[in-house]
Automatic annotation (TrEMBL):
Provenance organism: Leptospira mtsangambouensis
Pfam families according to UniProt: Phosphodiest
Name of the protein: Type I phosphodiesterase/nucleotide pyrophosphatase
Superkingdom, natural source: Bacteria
SUPFAM superfamilies documented for this protein: Alkaline phosphatase-like
PANTHER family linked: BIS(5'-ADENOSYL)-TRIPHOSPHATASE, ECTONUCLEOTIDE PYROPHOSPHATASE/PHOSPHODIESTERASE
Length: 568
């Protein structure tokens, strides 16, 4: 008979060991991602506590979100959160099966599971063996899987020999490889809304389905995820490591979006590695058609690469002169689709897809949470349009029209040269940011997105028979809405203000100890630190002292030298 005193002590020891191991696990994940993403002038890596959001002040709009009691209880259970606490906090009637709540905004950038766990489906029975696989796989593996199928070595090729079991022994090459990205479509979105994606659920049985795919880099952001899918590179090599960079001058926080140069013009050289499409296109004398479509430029560019501005790194290509590819995104000021003409083309099909006219043409067919009185009202509500079924339907229809125009009508669908077509269905991202991926609005958009993927698949079957590959994945997941998770929100304004308290009061609004910061990486102004004798340790302590609602925001701050080589 075990003494109860010793039994209790043993249980405490076991619990303690579990906590220690889980603590080590999250740190190892963060440090590995940091190593794969760290920039030449990065000094510190920032890790918030789980569910906390460090983002620019984007909380000026309150959104009314709708929820199902059953779904919310399941979500809370997955995150070890309490339904009773939420019910009391939101003052819910215990009998209500459906309820609403005004919410602000959520985001994604961390190495926690809700941001990094993503699914990957690969359909193409000629080349890919069906099955549900537990192998770990990252977005960076996707181009190398394509390279294996096409017998093509490119700059960022990584070893996929451990995935040999998924490949069929087929010598004929596919006529087209289609990559579909469900933006913010992490596994948590699918867990929250079971039954909302019948096509993708069925596709698990007809494809290679990877249930342990993961974002392996910092940050889990749109630009970085799409760059990974398009190039196979990690941010330490590509130099694409965030959606935007924040600086401070004259008392104001400034931010520069990715691919935007100093003069607010396009700078594709910011991506310092070639994409798979860049190299494949050139190796085949510009014969392949390259299509990359997303309403956000940072996603479309990340998948496609450099287009006509690609500078070959070797002389092994069939030609030294790249051509313009079809890469395009939304110009929300004009409610139309546009591109960067120096590098890319838009298909003529975009002329049919003015956003307001599309809304008018389909508002009788689509019952959704979005309405607009006129074009000006639509511009004012653009993010809500982009987070609706209208955007999902438009994205799918335009993508299919673009393939028809540029490949099928030009007889390139049977020329024996593999074309590459990328599309991001981004309405899931917009609705997730605004309403929360836990909401009924997100469920509605997920249903519409699943339907568009099914329609794309059926379109490919009709036009390409069995001579195509279709891969479906996500660029990242997202945090639960802070109103649900009790997570904290920290703006960059507050961050700069707090750190600069270390400076003399007269200097705090002129310059900053932080040269730049994204969300996870930070560079220090060493000259300013030297001038005022401020140490790196003092800055770390100041960052760690930041509190929101009397709770610490950051869990850990690492120095550059504390990030070991933990490559995959």
């Amino acid at each position: 008979m075990i003494n109860p005193k010793y039994k209790k002590r043993n249980i405490l020891v076991i619990v303690g060991l579990i906590l220690v191991l889980s603590n080590c696990g999250w740190e190892k994940d963060y440090k590995r991602a940091a190593y794969l993403s760290i920039q030449p002038d990065t000094d510190l890596i920032l890790a918030p506590f789980p569910f906390n959001i460090f983002d620019r002040e984007a909380r000026d709009a309150i959104t009314l979100s709708h929820y199902s009691k059953e779904e919310i209880k399941n979500i809370l259970e997955d995150h070890d959160l309490s339904w009773e606490e939420l019910k009391n906090q939101w003052q819910l009637d215990a009998e209500d099966e459906h309820f609403s709540k005004e919410v602000n905004y959520t985001s994604h950038y961390t190495q926690y599971f809700y941001d990094t766990e993503i699914p990957i489906w690969i359909y193409g029975p000629k080349w890919i063996r069906n099955g549900q696989y537990s192998d770990e796989i990252n977005q960076q593996h996707i181009p190398s899987i394509y390279g294996k199928i096409l017998d093509f070595q490119f700059k960022n090729t990584i070893d996929v020999s451990y995935l040999e079991k998924i490949f069929q022994n087929e010598k004929v090459k596919p006529e087209i490889i289609v990559t579909v990205v469900v933006d913010q479509g992490g596994r948590q979105l699918y867990k929250a809304h079971k039954g909302a994606y019948p096509f993708l659920e069925d596709l698990k049985n007809n494809s290679a389905y990877f249930k342990k795919a993961k974002v392996a880099h910092l940050e889990s952001h749109t630009a970085v995820g799409h760059m990974a899918i398009g190039t196979g590179a990690f941010p330490k090599d590509s130099k694409i490591f965030s959606n935007e960079i924040y600086t401070y001058a004259d008392g104001k926080v400034l931010h520069r979006p990715v691919y935007q140069g100093k003069n607010k013009d396009w700078d594709l050289n910011e991506m310092q590695v070639p994409s798979f499409a860049d190299e494949w296109d050139l190796s085949k004398n510009n014969e392949p058609v390259i299509i990359s479509q997303c309403y956000a430029a940072r996603a479309a560019v990340g998948m496609a690469g450099h287009g006509k501005l690609f500078s070959p790194i070797s002389k092994n290509s069939a030609t030294e002169f790249p051509d313009n590819d079809f890469v395009y995104w939304q110009d929300v000021k004009n409610l139309s689709w546009s591109t960067y003409n120096d590098a890319f083309l838009v298909p003529k099909s975009v002329q049919k897809y003015n956003l307001y006219q599309f809304y008018l043409n389909h508002k009788k067919d689509i019952s959704t949470h979005f309405e607009a009185k006129d074009p000006i009202d639509l511009i004012a509500k653009i993010h809500h349009f982009q987070g609706s079924e209208f955007q999902a339907k438009m994205d799918g229809a335009l993508f299919r029209d673009s393939i028809t125009e540029t490949i099928i009508n030009t007889k390139k669908d049977k020329d024996g040269i593999t074309d590459l077509a990328y599309v991001t269905l981004k309405a899931t991202d917009a609705v997730g940011h605004l309403y929360g991926w836990e909401s009924k609005e997100a469920e509605q958009v997920l249903k519409a997105t699943d339907k568009e993927i099914q329609t794309i698949f059926e379109y490919l079957k009709t036009n390409f028979g069995d001579n195509f590959i279709m891969l479906v994945t996500a660029d990242h997941g997202a945090a639960p809405m802070p109103e649900i998770s009790n997570g904290l929100f920290l703006s960059h304004e507050q961050f700069f203000s707090t750190v600069n308290e270390l400076l003399p009061e007269s200097e705090r609004t002129k310059r900053s100890l932080v040269k730049w910061v994204a969300h996870s990486q930070l560079s220090l102004d060493r000259d300013l630190m030297k001038t005022y004798q401020i140490s790196e340790e003092a800055i770390i302590q100041k960052i760690m002292s930041i509190q929101v609602n009397d709770r610490k925001f950051f869990r850990k701050v690492w120095k550059r030298e504390e990030i070991p080589n933990l490559s995959l």
